Amino acid sequence: MAKITLDNLAHSYLRDPKGEDDYALKELNHVWNDGEAYALLGSSGCGKSTLLNIISGLLQPSQGRILFDDVDVTHAPTAQRNIAQVFQFPVVYDTMTVRENLAFPLKNRGADANYVSGRVQDIARMIGMEAELDRKARGLTADAKQKISLGRGMVREDVNALLFDEPLTVIDPHMKWELRTQLKSLHHEFGHTMIYVTHDQTEALTFADKVVVMYDGRVVQIGTPQELFERPAHTFVGYFIGSPGMNVFDAEIDGSTARIAGTTVDLGAPYGALRGKTQVGVRPEFVQLHAGGEGVPARVRRVEDVGRHKIIRLDVDGQTYSAIAEEGHSVPAGADRITFDPEGINVYADDWRVAPESRMGEAA
């Protein structure tokens, strides 16, 4: 297990980068704590796999350092970093049995035969492949092979970190849930530092202690699932986390009020002078519909009943937004206005969250 420090780290695939836009991974300075489980979450091309491959040693960064427990491993080969990595598509030895595949990382390091046998049995049980232990890998399905890859990554107990690069892509949906649960149990049992790359928010939020959200080559927020949901540090986080994501309204901010679609909205707290593009973010759960009275003019476009709640799609000033009505709550007849719960309001300047003046001690 290891504390992982990213010191002034950045990477460009260009030989002679001229500016920030030429970097696939923009400058990072972060410390990831020993024994915690992290998820790298973001859309395709945001830099997740680049960062993971730098941590593993498969890629040398253009600048900066990687430290494991304060030891510089930036130029150390993968083998010297004592990590295990599981890739998006299965990497197995087809001519070996499932048992031999699982045992290989341990035998390669001279582990005791009895320990190898017991550990392989434990991992086979964990991935649901006890009955296939003596089958050749060649004849197995893609998802079975990926389970072997996961098992080989988890079989060693002495690794500094376990790295997973979208490992459940080829796994069927039911097995995904089971394997996520097993990975979480493994983390609780052995306390490995785990980093899990995914573009699936459900995988990230159910697996990780902390989620690292990436956008355009940059880490825009590191936080618990609750922190990401309640206080998105960047508009992308609000959009990407949640289903549907956070509503973002263009707004003119003046102290404790905002002007949205020609209507004054109480922000619940004062804000100082803001520069640049200013917006108000409100999750659908904090949007209320009304028929007449005060509020931002809105037109109900359609209502989607998804069982536990209804998603109401709204038109506000020509843009589409969402509200959520919990089970048992109906949409008011003739609804044409929306208001916001002040506790659910976030204010943004140039896409970054701004803390209200009355709560300056709170992280922005």
From TrEMBL:
Keyword hit for Cell membrane: yes
SMART domains the UniProt entry points to: AAA
Annotated Gene Ontology cellular component terms: ATP-binding cassette (ABC) transporter complex, substrate-binding subunit-containing
Domain ABC transporter, first and last residues per copy: 4-241
GO molecular function: ABC-type ferric iron transporter activity; ATP binding; ATP hydrolysis activity
Keywords per UniProt: ATP-binding, Cell membrane, Membrane, Nucleotide-binding, Transport
Record-stated family: Belongs to the ABC transporter superfamily.
UniProt-listed PANTHER family: ABC TRANSPORTER ATP-BINDING PROTEIN (PTHR43875:SF14), MALTODEXTRIN IMPORT ATP-BINDING PROTEIN MSMX (PTHR43875)
Protein name, as recorded: Carbohydrate ABC transporter ATP-binding protein, CUT1 family
Phylogenetic classification of the source organism: Bacteria, Pseudomonadati, Pseudomonadota, Alphaproteobacteria, Rhodobacterales
